[in-house]
Design a protein that fits this description.
343 residues; alpha/beta; TIM Barrel; 12-stranded mixed beta sheet; 10 helices; binds S-adenosylmethionine; binds iron/sulfur cluster
Length: 343
């Protein structure tokens, strides 16, 4: 058996060199976004944004070809992210086409929620049931400071619309000292009052122009201690497999409950159970968010690569998937750009 064949086990799953089953593709549909979150969208030295020319984004036809191939190879879960996936023209038809792929069991979406008020119904119709919505503050003025847009109410309306339609909603909160640390308990209360799982994400040093520094970083353990002061936190069994979050049931002294997740890419990295492969909006395959090694799938596609050659590159990327990342709390940022890689 050659090295590439080792990635395929006899039950049809893709397995890497460290016995991790790779079942989950995260697809960055675009590097464009209708927000400019301070920690995500990098500006160049002249204050402009570094965006890819449109021709450098993979077309929907190219993306469908790749998704069909990875599903055929054993992957069964897809997340659409970006940039903001909902700003890409034609995205709803693309999702409908994805939903027809046999063997693709689940399509999830990560969005900033800005367009949800108008797109939630269509998303539900196309079969999506789980949404991760990013929301770092519950205060409209602060929302504008963080994202550059005065759109808190619109996002909130989108979240409520999606919830009324029956979506399973997770709110992603990037935890930043000195920015939103006075709202962590408000978010925990929200998880009790609403059927939303609130997930605190450790601020990551991604991108050469990242605003990350050690003083703005807060560990999940510190957050957990803070949220734990509201009641009791009991780990929810089974949730560890539901992505990288450690999920707890918060029970208040009055007996109300809510679900709180902690995502700790830095302090408790989850590399040993990582089941992901990423396709960046520049058409590069990336085996680890925090490792800059990428394989150029777009060039292979556009130079007439056969299905076999594409499968070969996917297998090689899985074989090269690093055991783990080495970023620690005191390290400088990795070089990639979050909005291009897909957070
Ligand atoms: N635009 C969509 C959104 O905001 O949900 C999808 C793309 S965004 C890059 C995906 C996720 O990455 C968001 O939840 C965002 O908060 C998170 N993110 C971006 N930069 C981050 C950073 N430096 N550290 C931690 N999370 C980050
Ligand atoms: Fe846009 Fe999402 Fe990045 Fe914010 S985090 S700038 S919403 S891609």
């Amino acid at each position: 058996m050659n090295k590439q064949e080792q990635t395929i086990k006899n039950n049809g799953q893709l397995v890497d060199m460290f016995s991790r089953t790779i079942s989950y593709l995260r697809l960055s549909l675009t590097d464009r976004c209708n927000l400019r979150c301070v920690y995500c969208m990098p500006v160049d030295d002249k204050g402009g944004l570094q965006l890819l020319p449109h021709k450098d984004l993979l077309s929907y036809e190219e993306l469908l070809r790749i998704v069909n191939l990875v599903v055929d190879m054993g992957m069964n879960k897809l997340r659409l992210t970006g940039g903001e996936p909902l700003v890409r023209k034609g995205v709803m038809d693309f999702i409908t086409a994805l939903s027809r792929i046999d063997g693709l069991d689940e399509i999830r979406l990560t969005t900033n929620g800005v367009l949800l008020h108008e797109k939630a119904e269509g998303l539900y119709r196309s079969g999506i049931r789980k949404l991760n919505i990013s929301l770092d503050t519950l205060r409209p003025d602060r929302f504008k400071e963080i994202t550059g847009a005065d759109l808190f109410q619109q996002v909130w309306q989108g979240i409520e619309t999606a919830s009324d339609l029956g979506f399973d909603i997770k709110l992603n909160v990037v935890a930043m000292k000195g920015v939103n640390d006075d709202e962590f308990l408000d978010f925990a209360k929200l998880a009790v009052e609403k059927p939303y799982q609130v997930r605190f994400i450790e601020f990551m040093p991604v991108g050469k122009k990242s605003s990350w520094d050690k003083s703005s970083y807060i560990t999940s353990d510190e957050l957990k201690d803070l949220v734990g002061s509201m009641g009791t936190l009991d780990p929810l069994p089974g949730c560890r497999m539901d992505g990288p979050a450690r999920v707890y049931l918060l029970t208040t002294p009055g007996g109300s409950t809510g679900k709180i997740g902690f995502i700790s890419p830095i302090s408790h990295h989850f590399c040993d159970t990582c089941n992901r492969l990423r396709l960046t909006s520049a058409g590069k395959l990336r085996a680890c968010l925090l490792h800059d090694r990428e394989a150029d799938l777009k060039t292979l596609l556009r130079s007439g690569g056969t299905d076999d050659e594409i499968r070969g590159l996917i297998r090689q990327t899985i074989l090269d998937k690093p055991k783990g990342h080495t970023l620690a709390e005191d390290q400088a940022s990795c070089g990639g750009q979050m909005s291009r890689i897909g957070g």
